[in-house]
């Protein structure tokens, strides 16, 4: 198996992205493991940077268009 250096999200739907983000939030609340919310925040921050939007705008877009 080849090592993965980067991960591409171009094949993920908006619904899938929202599901990943919400799942990480839920996992953090359910387990109190900080790594889940850190990963969620890192993903959202990077996606907001790539789309040049605020977190609120980006998440609203995912929620209304999924």
Which features does this protein show?
66 residues, mainly alpha, 0% strand, globular
The low-pLDDT segments are none
Tally of contiguous helical segments: 3
Q: What do the pLDDT scores average to?
A: 90
The geometry reads as globular
Order of helices and strands: HHH
Number of separate structural domains: 1
Distance between the termini: 33 Å
Give the radius of gyration.
13 Å
Measured as a percent range, the helix fraction is 55-70%
Give a summary of the structure in a few sentences.
By secondary structure, the chain is mainly α. Helix content is 70%, strand content 0%. The longest helix has 18 residues, at 14-31.
Detailed description of the structure:
- With 66 residues, the chain is mainly alpha-helical.
- The chain has one domain.
- 70% of the residues lie in helices and 0% in strands.
- α1 runs antiparallel to α2.
- The longest helix has 18 residues.
- The chain is globular.
Layout of SSEs?
Layout: H1 14-31, H2 34-51, H3 55-64
Helix pairs in contact: 1-2
């Amino acid at each position: 198996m080849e090592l993965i250096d980067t991960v591409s999200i171009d094949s993920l739907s908006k619904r899938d992205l929202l599901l990943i983000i919400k799942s990480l939030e839920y996992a953090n609340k359910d387990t109190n493991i900080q790594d889940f919310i850190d990963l969620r925040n890192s993903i959202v921050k990077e996606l907001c940077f790539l789309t040049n939007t605020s977190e609120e705008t980006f998440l609203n877009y995912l929620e209304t268009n999924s």
